[in-house]
Amino acid sequence: MKIKERAKQLKRDIPVVFLALRKKETPWYAKILAILTVAYALSPIDLIPDFIPILGYLDDVIILPLLIVITLKSVPKEIIEQCRIESQGLWENGKPKKWYYSIPIILIWIIITVLIIKAFI
Description:
The chain is mainly α and 121 residues long. Helix content is 66%, strand content 0%.
């Protein structure tokens, strides 16, 4: 599979991860990964802001796809296949825009800021 095709597939897998999160057959550890993945994917705030040259796009190119792949590998294949069928057209109008999806990223930045301040004081 070519890189562009793989990237498109990973983008289509975000709703699959979202649906897998809601299935009671999904293991608890996979649900935790799914929560992190969906929150990161839908968050309007990136872990590494895009205005930082090169590093700003690493989260879009490496972190998010890695989260998606790890989450998909932790969910049983039959659940993933069922969720792929259910997800057809789920986010046709774009991903949902909810402000509270940014809370985990904001908390991470607050923790990093506090740790940096404590290191210099």
